[in-house]
C-alpha cells in the first residue's frame, strides 16, 4: 500500500496514511521523495516544492496559501499555510 494518498492530479500535498519518519525514502506512484521531517499519520506532506503565497491543493481544491516556501517532503500544516476557506476577505482562485 502506498503510504501517501493523492486524490486529484492538481494536488501538491498528499495525506500520510501512516507516520512518516524524517529521512525515510517513500516510493510513491511514479516517483520517490525524501521525508524531510516526521509527519504524523493523516497529516499532509508536500509532493512538490511550493512557493511562498502559492495555493495548496488537496482533493483538487485550494485549501490555503503557503506562508513560506515549502520543499518537497516537508510537513504541511498550520505553521506554513494559511486557510482561505470561509474567509470573506480572500477570494478563492481556480
CATH class: Mainly Beta
Secondary-structure element pattern, one letter each = EEEEEEEEE
Low-confidence stretches: none
Question: Which second-level CATH architecture applies?
Answer: Roll
Main β-sheet, spatial strand arrangement? 1-2-5-8
Shape: globular
How would a textbook summarize the main sheet?
4 strands, antiparallel
Span of the ends, CA to CA: 31 Å
Characterize the structure shown:
With 94 residues, this protein is mainly β. It has no helices and nine strands. A four-stranded antiparallel beta sheet has the order 1-2-5-8, with no helix packed on it. It is globular. The model has no long low-confidence stretch (mean pLDDT 91). One of its GO terms (molecular function) is altronate dehydratase activity. It holds the Pfam family SAF.
Topology diagram in text:
Elements (H helix, E strand, L loop, with lengths): L3 E2 L7 E4 L8 E4 L2 E4 L9 E3 L8 E4 L2 E6 L8 E2 L4 E3 L11
Antiparallel strand pairs: 1-2, 2-5, 3-4, 5-8, 6-7, 7-9
Keywords: Lyase
Protein name: Altronate dehydratase
GO molecular function: altronate dehydratase activity
Amino acid at each position: 500500500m502506498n503510504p501517501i494518498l493523492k486524490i486529484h492530479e492538481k494536488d501538491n500535498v498528499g495525506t500520510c496514511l501512516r507516520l512518516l519518519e524524517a529521512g525515510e525514502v517513500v516510493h510513491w506512484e511514479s516517483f520517490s521523495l525524501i521525508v524531510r521531517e516526521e509527519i504524523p499519520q493523516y497529516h499532509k506532506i508536500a509532493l512538490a516544492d511550493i512557493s511562498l503565497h502559492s495555493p495548496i491543493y488537496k482533493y483538487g481544491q485550494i485549501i490555503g496559501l503557503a506562508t513560506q516556501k515549502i520543499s518537497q517532503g516537508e510537513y504541511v500544516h498550520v505553521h506554513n499555510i494559511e486557510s482561505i476557506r470561509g474567509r470573506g476577505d480572500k477570494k478563492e482562485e481556480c
